[in-house]
Amino acid sequence: MNPYVYLAAAIMLEVIGTSLLKASDGMTRWLPATGSLLSYAVCFYLLSITMKSIPTGIAYAIWSGVGIVLISLIGLFVFKQRLDAPALIGIALICAGVLVINLFSKASTH
Q: Are 101 and 7 in contact (CB under 8 A)?
């Protein structure tokens, strides 16, 4: 299977895990806390499979960059957290970095 499918699934599970971590209220609510831990466990397993085919730095840059953007959007829309101009600029730079890696880096090909 294409390693980018595993990477996309790992990103989604990381975002779910982080959202559940926020909902766990400092690990005091057992259902979201358990869901968070399970999401992270499967996420890291899928990321490890990804790293068999995609260089570690590239896989991690995409995983963390896309995860940051998605969890920032969830924070904004679900948890009603505000993003100021420097945060938005930083997120835009992260998006630009992920695009540069995917569009121009020969290291990201497998």
A: no
